[in-house]
Design a protein that fits this description.
The protein is mainly alpha-helical and about 325 residues long. It contains 16 helices and no strands.
Length: about 325
């Protein structure tokens, strides 16, 4: 029964992550369409509302009769799963991650060149079609690894090595996917410009990559008592770093540099920034700079103590 549940968990993981990967890459989607059978309404109804409930009730009743549950385990005993019970879902997920990386290897780190070489593919489609799905994959993998670390047995060296191997492989493959998401967003920004939101999203992706690197480090000795504190410290550090670098100034500077290289600029976005962006905006030609500066300075004239900002105060006419 426990192995049956393990296989069921593996199937659920494949469905969830497989659907995300299919939405992120057309080649992988074609493979998924070829593998997954088409189900009509009658078949779906029969399997969902007839077979599974009665099969589970029958198996549950038989299992309960043959092996009544122990409701009060001995004090201090920690419940774990047997090796195959947790290794099957994680192993299947590792194989799925590896298959996705192999299938879309060309687009994984192809960046601008891959977009230019692919007929009908735009930078917008390249970034948007996969970035959010890959980000969600990165986030969902964290509780999967945490569950494996919690429930996997670690009594023998073989059990510990199995946990290190599977969980470590999943973390390493996820790091590759983090790199893919960052490459997609970088290509998108090079083509369409930089925004504060895109900078924040990329920062979150980089932070997730750091978290996975720490998970890999913790898995070497299977000691993670320091990990929660380290994750919190990196979170605070990322927030302080963002405040120190002035996100709006960084974004404005990147857009101005892009204008100097390509002649492309989005004044409608720049006017939405605050006075923190003005030092970089002053690098623009006068005919572009002056309307943007006027719009920004006009907005800084009305403020009360709750929205007071030093940069706005110093640049107020």
């Amino acid at each position: 029964m426990r192995m049956a549940l393990s296989v069921l968990v593996a199937l659920v993981l494949v469905l969830v992550f497989g659907a995300l990967f299919a939405g992120a890459d057309e080649n992988f989607a074609r493979i998924a369409d070829a593998v997954v059978p088409e189900l009509d309404f009658e078949t779906l109804f029969r399997s969902t509302f007839l077979f599974f409930p009665f099969a589970l009730m029958g198996l549950g009743a038989a299992f309960t009769a043959l092996r009544p549950p122990r409701l009060d385990p001995p004090e201090g005993e920690r419940q774990t799963l047997r090796g195959p019970e947790w290794a099957v879902p994680i192993g299947v997920l590792v194989a799925l991650f590896a298959l996705f990386i192999v299938v879309q290897a060309a687009s994984l780190f192809g960046g601008p060149q891959h977009v230019r070489d692919s007929a009908g593919l735009t930078f917008s489609a390249y970034a948007r079609s996969g970035f959010w799905q890959l980000t969600l994959v990165t986030i969902l993998t964290l509780p999967v690894i945490a569950a494996a670390a919690r429930w996997a047995p670690k009594r023998t060296r073989a059990e510990r090595n199995l946990l290190r191997g599977l969980a470590g492989a999943l973390a390493v493959l996820t790091l590759v996917i983090v790199g893919s998401a960052l490459a997609r967003m970088s290509a998108y920004q090079d083509a369409y410009g930089y925004t504060v939101l895109r900078l924040l999203v990329m920062t979150c992706e980089i932070w997730l990559g750091v978290v996975y690197a720490m998970i890999i480090a913790a898995g070497v000795r299977l000691r993670a008592s320091w990990l929660p504190t380290a994750v919190l410290a990196t979170t605070v550090g990322a927030l302080l770093a963002l405040a120190a670098v002035n996100p709006e100034g960084v974004v404005a500077g990147a857009n101005v540099t892009r204008f100097e290289q390509t002649g492309k600029i989005d004044p409608d976005y720049l006017v939405t920034l605050t006075a923190d962006a003005l030092p970089e905006i002053h690098r623009l030609p006068d005919e572009i700079e002056q309307p943007i500066v006027l719009d920004i300075t006009d907005r800084t004239g009305e403020e009360d103590w709750r929205s007071w900002n030093l940069t706005d105060h110093l640049t107020r006419p």
